[in-house]
Amino acid sequence: MTFLIQQLLLYAVPLMIVALAGVFAERSGIINLALEGIMIFGAFVGVLFVRAMAETEVFSAAKSAGNYLTLQGLEVLAMLLSAAMGALFSLLLSFASINLRADQTIGGTALNLMAPALVLFLVRILANQNTLFSVDAASWFMIKKTTLGYDRKADLGFLGNTFVDKSYIATYICIVLFIVLSVILYKTRFGLRLRSCGENPQAADSLGINVYRMRYAGTTISGALAGMGGFVYALTTANCTANGDVAGFGFLALAVMIFGNWKPLNIALASLLFGLFKCIAATYTSIDINGDGHFWLVDIGVSPHLYRMLPYLITLLVLAFTSKKSRAPKAEGIPYDKGSR
User: Fold this and answer.
1) Does the residue 331 lie in any domain?
2) pLDDT at 119
3) Residue 266 in contact with residue 20, Cβ under 8 Å?
4) Which of 9-13, 123-127, 155-159 comes out lowest in average pLDDT?
5) In this structure, are residues 152 and 145 in contact, taking their beta carbons and an 8 Å threshold?
6) Quick check: is 240 in a domain?
7) Strand partners, 143
8) What is the reported pLDDT for 315?
């Protein structure tokens, strides 16, 4: 059970933070279909930073001395850089949607097509191969029993073994960030103004709210969260590699957002559900449900291809039965015209 919960968090948390990224954009009135592309770009930037830091004396000294605090600091820096570059990348969507009043769906699709091509082009230039990676980077940043001064065979109890041993600080930073930003979105004046621009921008403008500025803010925050989510995905589930692919997590995050009806609490629960199926698809050969040494999901003889298809099949089924009840922001996808009423 400990292994299942640990793996569930690794898959659910990136989904949760990227789905919240979609909420910030769409609550401001911008459809951000580019979450997948921004995740890909954020993952590349974060992995590139880790790869560059691994070659410095600071990193070598920290690793040889067992200075885990410095290593965790480098992990946080990589997250911040990924967020910054994700925000910068999202400005392409903001400019096209707000200033040029271009179709937001087409703009997001264009970024989704451009991001993997750009990343693969840069990877080929920098590494002369199709994958950018930093050897053992995931293990460098993983929090283990020995990191906290315990023996490798020490028993930390259920909570310690589940939520501390073999965990990443990035996971918990994303959870805290999700809570803080959810409060900001629904309990502050900034959040109220942002949501008003996605519901009735003309009314918001009549009250002196700069709709263009708020939409830029929502999309920029969205890009930052998606970029960070891309690196967290690459670090925790892809062994800190970047190859122009995030396994469809950006599109799954959109499904989580719609299923969660653009509400943070619902999105958190939906992320756990979708993350569970994604976890099963990736680790079904290692899941011991009863703790008796038998891997039931393997023993039942189901084709492994079905397990890999499961998250996407569930996505289609969930959206087919729940999308009619979803209530999207009324003005999302509609370019704002200051002269129209």
Assistant:
1) no
2) 94
3) no
4) 155-159
5) yes
6) yes
7) 167
8) 80
Structure tokens at 203: 């009314």
DSSP letters along 39-71, please?
HHHHHHHHHHHHHHHTTSHHHHHHHHHT-HHHH
The Cα 333–Cα 198 span in angstroms is 9
Q: Is residue 340 in some structural domain?
A: no
The tokens for 259 are 């299923």
pLDDT digits (tens, 9 = 90+) for 274-331: 888 888 887 777 776 656 666 666 667 777 778 888 888 888 888 788 777 778 899 8
Report how many domains make up the chain: 1
Over the range 76-100, which residues count as b (16 or more CB within 10 Å of their CB) and which as e? eebbbbbbbbbbbbbebbbebbbee
**Tens digits of residue pLDDT in 221-236:** 999 999 999 999 999 9
Q: Give the span between the Cα atoms of 169 and 236, in whole angstroms.
A: 10
Q: Which domain holds residue 147?
A: 2-325
Give the ranges where the chain is alpha helix by DSSP (H).
2-27, 35-53, 57-65, 68-94, 104-127, 137-141, 157-163, 169-187, 189-199, 201-206, 211-237, 249-259, 264-283, 296-299, 304-322
What are 167's strand-pairing partners? 143
134, 47 contact by CB (below 8 A) = yes
Mean pLDDT, rounded, for 120-137? 85
Residue 270 sits in a domain whose CATH number is 1.10.3470
